[in-house]
Amino acid sequence: MAVHTVTMKGRTDPIGVPIPVGKIVCIGRNYVAHIEELKNEKPSSPMFFLKPTTALRRLEDPIRLPAYSKKARHELELAALIGKTLSHCREDEVLAAISGYAVAIDVTLQDVQDKLKEQGHPWEIAKAFDGSCPISPFVPAAQVPNPQDVKIVMRVNGQLRHNDSTALMIYKIPTIVAAASQYFTLEPGDIVLTGTPAGVGSLEPGDTLEMEIQHVGAYTSSVAR
User: Fold this and answer.
1) Which bin fits 131, alpha (ψ -120 to 50), beta or left (φ > 0)?
2) How many helices (H) and strands (E) does the chain have?
3) Res 39: pLDDT
C-alpha cells in the first residue's frame, strides 16, 4: 500500500522531511463573498467534507483534469498541518497543535458537482478524485505570525482571480479545527483546508497558475493539455 506524504520545510532543511498523511479535512462555504458568487446559502455551522490522500499532488506539478468533466475550477486555500492528536478539543487548544501551513488548491469539477447536487447524490467524485488537492511543502507554524490575517492571491494567465485575506473567514481556524475534532479524531499528519475566498474561476488545459499565500510561499503551476 502506498504511503502518501507531504514535506515540512525547515530553516536548515530546504528539501523537507516526509510526513505521512492520514486524511484531508476540508471546510466548504467559509467566505461570504465566495458563497455569494456561487449563489449558495450560508451554513449555520462549519460544513465538512473529506479528501483521500490519493488527492495529494505537488503544487508545482501540472494539474491533470479527469476526462469525465468538462468544467473545472480552482479554489486556493490555506492548509494547516496537524501536529498533535485532537479529539473533542477546545478552540484554545488548536493553534498549539498546528505544526505548519501550506498553499493548497481544492480542484473542483463544477459540472459534475452541479449534476450530483441536482440528483441529491454525494459529490466526492467532483472533489476527491486523484490529484484534486495540489499542495506545497509546509512551512513551520512559527513562520506565519498570524494565520488569521494573511493574503491569498492567485493569477491565471496573468489575470487576477483570488485576492483576499484569511481575516475574512466566517469560521476562524481554531473554530474549524475544534469543530472537525468533534466528528473526526485529528491525528499528526492530517491536513485541514480552511476554505477559499472569492475569485474562483475555470481551469483550462494550458493555463498557467501563479499562487501566493503571505508568509507561506509563492508557487507556479499549470493545467496539463
Assistant:
1) left
2) 4, 17
3) 75
Residues (pLDDT < 50) of the chain are 11-12, 14
Give residue 16's pLDDT. 66
Q: What's 30's domain CATH number?
A: 3.90.850.10
155 in a domain, yes or no?
no
pTM of the model: 0.94
Q: How far apart are CA 208 and CA 213, in angstroms?
A: 17
Task: Answer for the pair 27, 176: CB distance below 8 angstroms, yes or no.
Answer: yes
pLDDT at position 196 is: 94
> Cell triple for residue 34?
465566495
Whether 222 is covered by a domain: the verdict is no
DSSP label at 187?
Answer: -
Residues 6+ positions from 62 with CB-CB distance below 8 Å: 221, 222, 223, 224
Q: Which domain holds residue 132?
A: 5-149+166-203
Residues in the chain: 225
